[in-house]
Design a protein that fits this description.
Number of strands: 36
Shape: globular
CATH class of the largest domain: Alpha Beta
Helix content: 10-25%
Largest sheet: 7 strands, mixed
Structural class: alpha/beta
Length: about 700
């Protein structure tokens, strides 16, 4: 097997999978049956999937979610998306070099009848929102079909190895994302009125109320009475020179490869974006044994939860706020990235450039709603609902609640739920969608005897599982709000059970126990990386909240509640009393990667690619705008921007931004006309060549 496979992980089990052989450009390679072609190629250290016919630029993975077409390959003579096509034994795969030729045979095809299904409710998307809605509908016995284009349910939940925030009762707080996916799936299996169609892609919504879907290679029509769109979100892209080099892809693509497909994508990654997606991706990288060189955020502070940023700092990851990416460099794939500091006017400060060697750059600069199905269905007058990120970008805990709410709204519209939707559900959904509050550090308790839980969470976020697990009911939050900071009501109540330390999603609670030695208390630290680095007797570097080293200390004991809190180790050390309340982290990346201050000449920003499919640069689009273009359709006719296979899913937001940068009010710009199909489909699929009784 290739050496890019992840064969051990501190959180994930490594399943036994059947090894198969396939061919890549004539070379025989090994893969795993059923895994996506892109993952099999990455596992064999192949990052270039072809070259663009316009300029010969190398093409590689970007979204790994079927939203773009960067990963196009030829599999058994048919163009396919490598990230959405399962590997089969003896499959012949070729890179795309230039424009693929049409098949030599072009015999007339007799179209076949298209199967049609009537259903009360169709849910597009089996992520946290779609599954939660389906559960409410299933409880009421409502005939429901849930479709999803992946081979398993859970959506982005299956990519998450960290514990979720929120509350234990309402959103499985303290449970890891992939485990929540299993819990929701197991619950849904109890309701026979709900059917789940996997490997099924919704491709269009039509004026007669039909939703067209493709199940593997078979085209089907579904006619629902009610439609729920829970399609999630897609990642945004940035415009900078070198931004399309292989090795530069979305953080979600990285999590898909590392956590779902168990492929080690790289040796050193750099992350662009300090929201929760970027911060969490950095944590996942370290769990997979990948070095995180650094993280850059243009704002003066990270936009994600402080506890997520603190986890990275404590592990040894430098975070550069008020910095931006300037350029990426490399030949066939990214080899280095340059960042620079920004002043208060968002201008680059001369002489502040830093260049880092990295073989992967993760773009995590925000998400945008995948809501085209909802908008089109509403335009056609269908009875359509929307939930999760397709409704509003928020955390998965909020998506679960909006799914529950929309599920009951659908039931009410079918006259199958006569009661009022619980008002507290709406209130909780609003709270779970709320942005992080202000940071207000609190000093640890001054008591120097007994046992004391120390809370290192200083930012108001919707999270309180520590309250639920305390057997003494000694932990509360300020004003009893889920967003309030936690505190212990009476220090004498704490018996040192360690449950609060083990459950905390932010790894932000420690326990200081002075009962045996008041001068050198035992401190328990939460830890989720490699067990072998914290074995008893080993010396570890202990840090404070900001990653500053407090000292080196031998591990006295490692506690693990495998059944109740799997994956979280509780590492115990003895240290000086005056440092005990500050201790929180264990440094893993001990050698910081030093950037080069030598910077080559700035690449012109206009060289950045905006339209990846058609290789249209920012300069070409700016020139068209300066020449008076105010219509996206006109722009497409001039330089093909937005005309590629992805249907402008990636470039459209960046083109809007260029209009704004050129001083054009967006009200003056005519948006492009969307295609009737939102996902690329071979014509043979509509004709029935690949489905039904076909031998293909």
């Amino acid at each position: 097997m290739a050496d890019r496979r992840i064969r051990k992980h501190p959180i994930l089990d490594i399943p036994q999978r059947e090894q198969v052989h396939f061919f890549w450009n004539g070379k025989k390679l090994s893969g795993l049956t059923g895994e996506m072609i892109s993952s099999a190629l990455f596992a064999n250290n192949i990052h270039i999937f072809g070259h663009h016919p316009k300029d010969g630029s190398p093409q590689g993975l970007f979204c790994a979610n079927g939203q773009c077409s960067q990963c196009l390959v030829i599999a058994d003579k048919i163009p396919v998306k490598a990230c959405m096509t399962p590997l089969r034994a003896e499959m012949v795969i070729e890179s795309v070099e230039g424009i693929p030729e049409l098949p030599a045979e072009d015999d007339p095809v007799k179209p076949r009848a298209v199967p049609e299904t009537d259903v009360e409710v169709l849910i597009i998307g089996a992520g946290p929102a779609g599954l939660s809605a389906a559960l409410e509908l299933g409880k009421l016995g409502i005939d429901t079909i849930v479709i999803d284009d992946k081979d398993r349910i859970g959506g982005k939940l299956v990519l998450q190895t960290h514990k979720f925030f929120g509350s234990v009762e309402d959103s499985h707080a303290g449970t890891r994302g992939f485990e929540i996916a299993s819990l929701l799936g197991n619950a849904l299996a109890e309701f026979p009125s709900v059917r789940t169609w996997l490997n099924t892609t919704a491709v269009g919504v039509f004026s007669d109320g039909i939703v067209g879907v493709v199940t593997e290679k078979t085209y089907r029509k579904i006619r629902p009475k009610k439609l729920l769109v829970a399609t999630g979100a897609r990642e945004k892209m940035l415009s900078f020179p070198g931004n399309t080099l292989p090795g530069i892809f979305g953080a979600g693509a990285f999590q898909t490869l590392v956590n779902r497909d168990l492929v080690k994508t790289s040796e050193k990654v750099f992350i662009v974006g300090g929201g929760n997606v970027g911060l969490i991706a950095g944590y996942h990288a370290i769990q997979a044994g990948i070095r995180v060189v650094g993280l850059v955020e243009a704002l003066p502070q990270v936009g994600g939860y402080k506890v997520h940023a603190d986890k990275l700092k404590r592990l040894g990851v430098p975070i550069y706020t008020s910095h931006t990416v300037v350029a990426a460099r490399g030949e066939d794939r990214v080899e280095a990235i340059t960042i620079a500091e920004l002043d208060k006017e968002w201008n680059i400060i001369p002489g502040s450039h830093k260049t880092f060697q990295a073989d992967t750059v993760l773009i995590a600069v925000g998400l945008t709603e995948v809501n085209e199905f909802y908008l089109k269905a509403r335009e056609w007058g269908m009875d359509v609902f929307v939930a999760g990120d397709a409704q509003e970008i928020a955390e998965a805990s909020a998506a679960m609640f909006t799914g529950k709410i929309e599920g009951l709204k659908i039931a009410k519209s079918l006259k199958r739920y006569p009661e009022a939707i619980p008002r507290e559900w709406e209130e909780k959904a609003s709270i779970l969608k709320s942005k992080p509050g202000a940071v207000s550090p609190e000093k640890p308790p001054e008591q120097q005897s007994g046992v004391i839980p120390v809370f290192h969470c200083y930012q108001e976020i919707a999270c309180n599982p520590c309250i639920s697990v305390c057997p003494e009911h000694a932990i509360r939050t300020r004003e009893d709000k889920i967003t309030g900071l936690p505190y212990i009501t009476d220090l004498s109540l704490c018996k040192g059970c360690l449950s609060c330390v083990a459950v905390c999603p932010g790894l932000a609670i420690t326990l200081v126990d002075s009962r045996k030695d008041q001068d050198h208390p035992t401190v328990t630290l939460p830890y989720e990386i490699w067990r072998e680095t914290v074995e008893e007797g080993q010396e570890i570097e202990v840090t404070d909240d900001n990653g500053n080293i407090l000292g080196n200390y031998p591990v006295k004991k490692v506690v693990s509640f495998k059944k109740k809190f799997p994956g979280t180790l509780l590492v115990q050390i003895e240290m000086e009393a005056n440092k005990a309340g500050k201790a929180i982290g264990i440094r893993v990346q001990r050698e910081e990667v030093k950037p080069s201050m030598v910077y080559e000449e700035d690449l012109p920003p206009d060289e950045a690619i905006v339209c990846r499919c058609e290789r249209v640069t920012a300069g070409e689009i700016r020139q068209a705008i300066r020449n008076g273009v105010r219509d996206m359709n006109h722009l497409k006719a001039i330089n093909r921007a937005g005309m590629g296979a992805c249907g402008s899913k990636t470039c459209r937001p960046m083109i809007w931004r260029l209009f704004k940068e050129e001083g054009i009010e967006l009200e003056q710009v005519t948006d492009r006309v969307d295609r009737p199909l939102f996902v690329e489909v071979p014509l043979g699929t509509f004709a029935g060549v690949f489905g039904g009784d076909s031998d293909e």
